[in-house]
Design goal:
Elements (H helix, E strand, L loop, with lengths): L26 H14 L7 E7 L5 E7 L2 E2 L4 E6 L3 H8 L2 E8 L4 E11 L2 H10 L2 H9 L9 H13 L12 E15 L7 E8 L2 E6 L3
Antiparallel strand pairs: 1-2, 1-5, 3-4, 4-7, 5-6, 6-7, 7-8, 8-9
Length: about 210
C-alpha cells in the first residue's frame, strides 16, 4: 500500500480561549460548565468518551463508551464486566477517558482509577434502560469470539420466548464503573497552534491548577 501523507490537512482554531483565572477551581464544576455548553450547542452524542485501558501485559486498548453520570467522586459508565475493558480494569484499574467536542474546539482528558459501582446502583440503572438494550446485555458475551450473527439472534429468540412480562434481571457480569480522577486537562483550541491547556492535578486532597505548553 502506498504511503499517504496528510500534512496539508489543517484547521485553524479561534473560537474561544481559556486561562488560569477563568477556570473554576473545582475541575468537576468546570467540566459541568463545559458539558452544559455542549448540550446547549446541540452537539450529537455529547456524552461519548474515549476510554483507554490496559491489562497486566501493558498493551493499551481503547474504545468509545457513553458517560452515564457524574458526581462529586467521578465519571460513571456501564459495561459487561467480562468484556475486554472489564477484564483489563480488573487487572489494572488505572484508566484514561477523553472527551472531544470538535464543534467547540475543546477536549477534556481525565486520568484516574476505575472502581465498580454497588450492585444497587447497577440494578437501578439496568432497570432504566430500554427493553431491547436490557435484552442485548443479557444475551451478549461481549468481546468473546462468536460463530456469527445468527448466534446472537438465536440467543435473543430463546430469551424472549421464556420471558415473563418483559422482566429481565441484570446479569451478574454486567454493571457500572466510576472513574475517580487524579488529573484533568482542559484543552481549548487557539490560533497558530498555541492552544490553551489547563491542568488540574490532585495533590493530597487539593487540586493544583497549572498551564501546560501546547
Amino acid at each position: 500500500m502506498e504511503r499517504k501523507l496528510f500534512e496539508n490537512i489543517r484547521t485553524e482554531y479561534a473560537k474561544r480561549k481559556l486561562d488560569e483565572s477563568s477556570v473554576n477551581p473545582d475541575p468537576f464544576i468546570q467540566f459541568t460548565l463545559w458539558f452544559e455548553e455542549v448540550i446547549q450547542a446541540g452537539i450529537e452524542e455529547p456524552s461519548a468518551m474515549f476510554l483507554a485501558t490496559s491489562g497486566t501485559d501493558g498493551r493499551p486498548s481503547g474504545r468509545i463508551v457513553l458517560l452515564k453520570g457524574i458526581n462529586e467522586k467521578g465519571f460513571i459508565f456501564f459495561t459487561n464486566y467480562d468484556s475486554l475493558k472489564g477484564r483489563e480494569i480488573r487487572e489494572n484499574p488505572n484508566v484514561a477517558i477523553t472527551f472531544h467536542w470538535k464543534e467547540l474546539e475543546r477536549q477534556v482528558r481525565i486520568t484516574g482509577e476505575a472502581c465498580r459501582l454497588t450492585k444497587k446502583e447497577s440494578d437501578a440503572y439496568f432497570k432504566s434502560r430500554p427493553f431491547e438494550s436490557r435484552v442485548s446485555a443479557a444475551i451478549s458475551p461481549q468481546s468473546s469470539v462468536i460463530p456469527g450473527r445468527d448466534f446472537l439472534e438465536e440467543r435473543r429468540g430463546k430469551l424472549l420466548k421464556h420471558l415473563d412480562d418483559k422482566k429481565i434481571t441484570r446479569p451478574l457480569n454486567w454493571g457500572g464503573f466510576i472513574v475517580k480522577p487524579v488529573q484533568f486537562e482542559f484543552w481549548q483550541g487557539r490560533e497558530s497552534r498555541l492552544h490553551d491547556r489547563i491542568q488540574f492535578r490532585l495533590e493530597k486532597k487539593n487540586w493544583i491548577i497549572e498551564r501546560l505548553a501546547p
